[in-house]
Amino acid sequence: MKASISRRKFVGQLATLPLLALLPAALQAQIISKIPPTSPFGADSTAEEVTAGLDLAGKTYAITGANSGLGYETMRVLALRGARVIGIARTMDKAEAACSSIAGVTIPAYLDLGNFESVVNCASMIRGLDIPLDGLVCNAGIMALPERELLYGMEKQFVVNHLGHFILVNQLLETVLAAPQGRFVLLSSLAHRRAPEQGIQFDDLAFANGEYDAWTAYGHSKLANALCSLELARRVSGTSATANSVHPGVINTNLGRHLPWYMQVAGTLFGWTFMKSIEEGAATQTYVATSPGLVGVNGYYFADCNPDPGETAAMRDEAMAARLWLLSEELTRDYLPATPA
User: Fold this and answer.
1) Which residues are catalytic?
2) Contacts 24+ apart (CB under 8 A), 31-34
3) Could you tell me the fold of the domain covering 37-331?
């Protein structure tokens, strides 16, 4: 059971943390506990509420899927708090429309996570700005494709949700490391529990063996997101950067566009009884990306603005995470930054 903490006491403790964030990473590790503080926020908190009182002026964040749903709300709130936000969408038209519709400083960018070359081009454009990234929020994705589709010879959800973001993370690694306390936030999902029992299907990424199931394949990709975050956390350990994954909640967004019509109708009519609003759904990723209380907190899986104790054993399987990272490098080698000779 989580210890309770008053909101006033929590905010008071946070007052000193921005100063600690300026200290060298090694000294931060000696002063700040790596265990996340108990958050006063929960399932019904909104992105605006979890950032109330924060001044993000001078910080820069990049968000995939910023043209709609959780990505749009995250961008809107970060810009509201004074941050510069690079809003990434699948096309430049969508990115420009989204960025121009909110108040604050925004920069439109575009990529197609299913087209690795476009991911590289987008990352190159961001690096060309010569601005450290205080946060990279890997928010975009696709869900529950009714029929098996392949990209690069692999199941499409694994490619788009995991490998596309894997390339982006690696292409922007140094840009995030250049920030005083850069943060990688990767969206996973409660659906990781629907992944195959053995975890990542290293020998069948095409889901060619056996009958295809939309939710199993989606869960497989979301487990990959969480494991990628876990291994990334290990790789940035000892730096000032952190990596954490997030379950935003069950929200009625266009992510569900591939669901059967009757499920979409049910979500529209009765979703208010069990779903979060978009404002609530964006809270956890916004909190993890910005909270001064999470300086140095690395390698966790968050839900409802707190570490989620309900993660499966596969989510914490460090050997599987390391193996997935190496395989992902092999699968995307042509699109990763060049390794110095």
Assistant:
1) 212
2) 32/295, 32/296, 33/296, 34/296, 34/297, 34/298
3) Rossmann fold (3.40.50)
